[in-house]
Amino acid sequence: VIEIHPVEGLPEIRAGDDLGAMIAARVELRPGDVLVVAQKAVSKAEGRVVRLDEIEASAQARELAGGDEDPRRLEAILRETVRIVRARPPLVIAETRHGFVCASAGVDASNAPEPGTLVLLPLDPDASARRLHERLGVAVIVSDSFGRPFRHGTTDVAIGVAGLAPLEDLRGTHDRAGYELQTTQIAVADELAGAAQLVMGKADGVPAAVIRGAPVRGDGAARDLVMEAERDLFR
Amino acid sequence: VIEIHPVEGLPEIRAGDDLGAMIAARVELRPGDVLVVAQKAVSKAEGRVVRLDEIEASAQARELAGGDEDPRRLEAILRETVRIVRARPPLVIAETRHGFVCASAGVDASNAPEPGTLVLLPLDPDASARRLHERLGVAVIVSDSFGRPFRHGTTDVAIGVAGLAPLEDLRGTHDRAGYELQTTQIAVADELAGAAQLVMGKADGVPAAVIRGAPVRGDGAARDLVMEAERDLFR
């Protein structure tokens, strides 16, 4: 049996906050637990916030804004982007410095600390997860809500991982009848992130959850989940 | 708190089996529960299995097989395909009759009933979910493991839904600071399917799970999750 517990009572996170201590004060973590922390909380604690009034929009940003949108927001997105994968102004699907492909390069105004600010992804979410893992002694996932091709809606996925292998490798395993399995890797870290979202909500101010009883094995990083561009049929 | 319970002790499923009765005999379902059933079990109960020796490969199937692969398997895939989205022989990413985009149009040899057979997706997985929902009185998701662009590994997603709205619509809701949320729809059915996979494993013979305490609202179908091709930037 797996249990998913919301971490309740966390205040609004501010730059410099000791997120690990704030979580440890509110939940009893046990060996084998997985702590899932929303990217927004991690980014705010790390000060990954920009002010629109400190951004000057480039010509490309104005073009991508398409008229109705604030071009400074597009400029903030372009600064987080290593490659534009698809664009339909003002929608930009971008590859980030981490290799993630997501809307707006993860730049988001909702749940931002104040009007006129945008929250960026952590510079190195695997390192963010690793610091929390070393501090708290449990597996840690930093999660964010990503859209995906072909299907409506977002699901939360892992953008930072420490203390568990994000992929369960089934190569060489067999089904009950003895046939080797075709699906060879399961993205358990993404499934754990999505499961945690079910108790975290979006507007509820619950930026963390604890998953108890999940199969946690090995170690790794969210960068293991990134499909190499040259192997990817969709980039 | 959300709990995820595996439904244990189910035998190998055969064509004509009363899956609803078999599950009801092994787990006590309560109002508000979500029952997640693996596609493979539903397909087998519905007799959605083909024998390779009854398939004759077309020229297109032989071409897509690329030499090393059995072209009859590719022929079975083509028969389930309304559009080939990407192909790198023998890998085919296909749009199915349901609108799902997935590897091999969901055709799979692992966990097949016997050598030389392939399991196909249910003809109408929403109808399969609806029958179980009416029989058992709880929300039902039929799940399958799908790969996705940009990221390694599969996650389980909902290919059939009944008794819950697969998308949580946040349009018009606001964050703690009063800003309207940018992420407007959460694919909760996919997150529930992925969460259930964590207890179902792949080779373990646990083809169903019960999720207790999840936010279950409304009603709908997995077809609501399908992005219309003309809106999709990746088709």
Structure characterization notes:
- The structure is a homodimer of 235-residue chains.
- Chain A has 235 residues and is of the alpha+beta class.
- In chain A, 23% of the residues lie in helices and 27% in strands.
- Chain A is built from six helices and twelve strands.
- The first copy, chain A, has helices at 19-24, 39-45, 59-65, 71-79, 125-136, 188-200, and strands at 2-6, 34-38, 49-51, 81-88, 91-96, 101-103, 117-119, 139-148, 151-162, 168-169, 185-186, 208-212.
- In chain A, strands 1-12-2-8-9 form a five-stranded mixed β-sheet.
- In chain A, strand 5 (91-96) and strand 6 (101-103) form a beta hairpin.
- The longest helix of chain A has 13 residues, at 188-200.
- The termini of chain A are far apart.
- The model of chain A has no long low-confidence stretch (mean pLDDT 93).
- Chains A and B meet through strand 1, strand 9, strand 11 and helix 6 of A and strand 1, strand 9, strand 11 and helix 6 of B.
- Strand 1 of chain A pairs antiparallel with strand 1 of chain B.
Short descriptors:
homodimer, 235 residues, alpha+beta, 5-stranded mixed beta sheet, 3-stranded antiparallel beta sheet, globular
Overall radius of gyration of chain A: 18 Å
Q: Which oligomeric form is depicted?
A: homodimer
Which structural category do the helix and sheet elements of chain A fall into?
alpha+beta
Query: What coarse outline of chain A follows from CA principal-axis ratios?
Result: globular
Strand order of the largest sheet of chain A: 1-12-2-8-9
How much of the residues of chain A is beta strand, in percent? 25-35%
**Number of beta-strand segments of chain A:** 12
Q: Give the number of helices of chain A.
A: 6
Q: Most extensive interface, residues per chain?
A: A-B, 71 and 71 residues
**Main beta sheet strand tally, sense and closure of chain A:** 5 strands, mixed
Low-confidence sequence ranges of chain A: none
Distance between the termini of chain A: 38 Å
Q: Into which percent range does the helicity of residues of chain A fall?
A: 10-25%
User: From N to C, what is the helix and strand string of chain A?
Assistant: EHEHEHHEEEEHEEEEHE
What is the mean pLDDT of chain A?
93
